[in-house]
Amino acid sequence: MRRKWRWILGALVAIVLLAVLVLWLLLRGSLAELDGEHPLPGLAGKVTVERDALGVVTITAGNKADALRALGRIHAQERYFEMDLMRRSAAGELSALFGAKAIEADKRMRVHRLRARTEAHLQDALGSDPAAVRAYVDGVNQGLGSLAVRPWAYLLLRQAPQPWQASDSVLAGLAMYADLQDPGNPSELALQRIRAVVPPALYALLAHDGSEWDAPLAGAPRGNAPLPDASQLDLRTLKAATGAVAEDADAVGSNNFAVAGALTADGRAIVADDMHLGLRAPSLWFRVRLRYPDPQAAGGQVDVSGFSLPGVPAVIVGSNGHVAWGFTNSYIDTADFRSEPADAAVTVHEERIVVAGGTDVQFPVRETAWGPILHTHTDGSGDALRWVAQLPGAVRMDFADMARAADLHQALQIVDHAGIPAQNLVIGDRSGRIAWRLIGARPDRGPGCAPLGFNENQANQGCAPWPIRSDAAPSLIDPPAHRLWTANSRVVDEATLATVGNGGYDLGARGRQIRDLLATQERFDEHDLLAIQLDDRAVFLQRWWVLLQEVIEHSDDPALKRLRTVSEHWDGRAAINSTSYRVVREFRTQVLDTLTDALLAPARAQLGEDFLAPRLAQLEGVAWPMLEQRPANLLPPAYASWDALLADAAHRTEAELSKQGPLAHRSWGERNTAAICHPVARALPAFASRWLCMPADPLPGDRDMPRVQTPTFGASQRMVVSPGHEADGIVHMPGGQSGHPLSPYWGAGHEDWVHGRPTPFLPGKAQHTMTLVPVP
Questions:
Q1: Fewest CB atoms less than 10 Å from the CB: which of 42, 219, 608, 631?
Q2: Of 773, 696, 545, which is closest to residue 62 (Cα–Cα)?
C-alpha cells in the first residue's frame, strides 16, 4: 500500500513538473530573437540590429524604409501586447480582449469614433512618406508572425493577436491624446455648470487660474486670488451640501528645460526632458538608435537616438547629433462643449462593441456638426464636445522628420506641421541655440470665438465648428537669459492665453523651483541638469510646515503633542525616510479638503446629481490667502473659527497616520512605494502578479517639485543631452525594454531610475547582434 502511494505521489510530482516545463517552454516561445541571421521580406538590403546590456537597440540600415521595417519587427517582438492595448484603448476596443468589465471604458472612447475617423482620413495621417509607415507596419506583422508562440499575455487571456494596420499606428498616437487630454473634458463642463448656480464671487474663487507661484516664460505671474468681502460672498448664508472629497487629485508632472551655449564651458546647448506619465512594466517608451543614409539629412546621414513609442515609426524625443528636443504637456484648451437643443440635427452612428466571452453591445453615438453628444438632459438637450483628437490632422506621421533636422530653424519648420498632442517643445541645436515652441494640434477658433476655458462664458455659442492647426504657434527663440523651462504650468502671457486657452494648467510651484535653480548658476553641464530633475526639495511646503507648528506648538492635546514630536524637525525634502514631510503633506491635504468641500458645497446643493467636481489645480492661490487673512465670510460653516479648522485638520492628520502604527514610523517612503506592474498583473492572484511587477521600492519625490513621483506615476523617462555631445548624455527609464518577464531586459535599467544613477544616453557595447536579410 505504501508503495502504491509513493507511486501516486511520484506521478503527481511528475505531472506538475511536466506542466511547469510546458508552461516555461510556452513562455519562452514568445521571447524576442536576439542573435543570428533572419529573413525579413521587403528589405532592400541587410540590416544590423544590436542590443546592449540594457536591451537598447541600435539599427543600422541602408535606407529609412529598411530601418523602420526593422524597428517594426523589434517593437512587435518586444512589445506587441502593449501596442495592442494602445490602439484598442484609443478605439474603444478593449472589451474584445478583457470582456464585459471593459465595456464602460470602451464607451467613453468609442463615443469619439476614433477608428472610423482615422480610416476616413488615413492618407493624410500617414504624412509625406506613407511608404515608410507601411514598411514599419509590415515589419510589425512579420515580427509578430516569426515568434514561435504568440505573446504570453494572449495565452493568459486565451486570445489571439490581430494583425497590425497602418491605422493602428495612428490610433497609437491618438492613445497619447487620451492620456494627455481628458477625452470627457470634465473640469470644463463642471465649471460651466457651477457658474450657472453660484454667486459670481464664489465662481471666481473656484475658477482662479494662477497663484504667486507662477513662473511663465512670458508675462507676469497671475498672483493669488483677491478675496471677496461679505457683501459679495458669505458661505454661512448659502445653502450647502457636503460630499466626499478625493484624498488626492491625480498627479501632474513633466519638466523640460534647457541652457544655451552661453552658459556652458564649450558653447554646447543642453536639453533636459522628463515626461511624467502613468508607470507600468514594461516602460511606455522603447530606447533605440537609428542609423541610415538620407540625402535630406545633414551630411547625408541620419543618426538619431532616444525614445520611441512602440506602435509609432519615429523617435519621439531624443537627439540626432544636430538637434536635441523634448516635451511637456501644454495644457492649453483643446476641447469645447456646446449645448445642443433637443431639435438639433443629429446623426446616429451604431457602434458595435465586441465583448470577449459575451454578447456584442450596440452603442449608438449621437453626433451633431459640433461633435458627439456626451451628456443628454431630461429635456432632450445635450452637451456636444468638439475635441482636437476627433479632427483630421490630429495625428500626422511627419514628426518622424525630426530625425533629419540639421539645426534649430529646420527643426521648428518640421514641428510646425507635427500632428501630435499640443506640447511644450524645448529644443537646442549644435550651435548652442535654444527655443521653446507650442507645437501640435490646437483649435483654430474663428474671430470672436474664445476658448470656453475656466474663465470664459458661453458667448461663442454661435461659433462655427472649428478646424485645427499646428503652424504659426507661440514661441520663444534665443531667450535673452539663455535659459528655458516648462512644467505643465502657464508658459504664455495674457494675450496669448486668451487665444490658446487654459486646459487645466498645473500649479506653478514646480516650474518656479526649476526656474530658480537655473538662475543660481552661470555654468552648467549635463550632471547639473540631472540634479535639477532629481530635486526633491519641498520648497512649496515650507510655509505649510510653519503653519502646522503654529497650530500645535503650544497645545496640551495629547494627539497634537505626538504630532509635534515627529514634525518639529523639518527635513525639507520628500525623502523616503522623512516623517515630517509626510506629516506636513497630510496636514495640507486635510486643510485643502475642508476648504474644497466648503467652496463646492453650494454648487453641490444646487446641482444635485448633475454636480461634477472640477479639478482645482490652482486652489493654493485661493486657500493660502484665506489662511493668511482668515475672513469670517469664507470660514467653512462647520467651524467656529479658523483656529478650530486648523486644529481639526491637525487632529485628522494625527488620526489618519496613527491608524498604521506609531507616528515615528510613518515615513514618506512607506506611503510612496512603487507599484509598477504589467497591465495584466491585476488579473492574477497576488502570489503570481508579483512576478509581473518591478520591486516595491520606496521612492523619493512628490508633486509640486521637479522629481514628481507617486507609486504609479512619475518620470516615464529622463534625458539630459547636448546635440553633438551625445556621448556625455544621461538617460533613465523605469521598467525595462522588454514586455516579457523572462527576458533579460524585463527590468534592465530600472534600479538606476529608482536611485537616480546616471546611465549613458547612447547605447553601450553590443551584447547581442542580429542580422536581418532580404528575401530573394
A1: 608
A2: 773
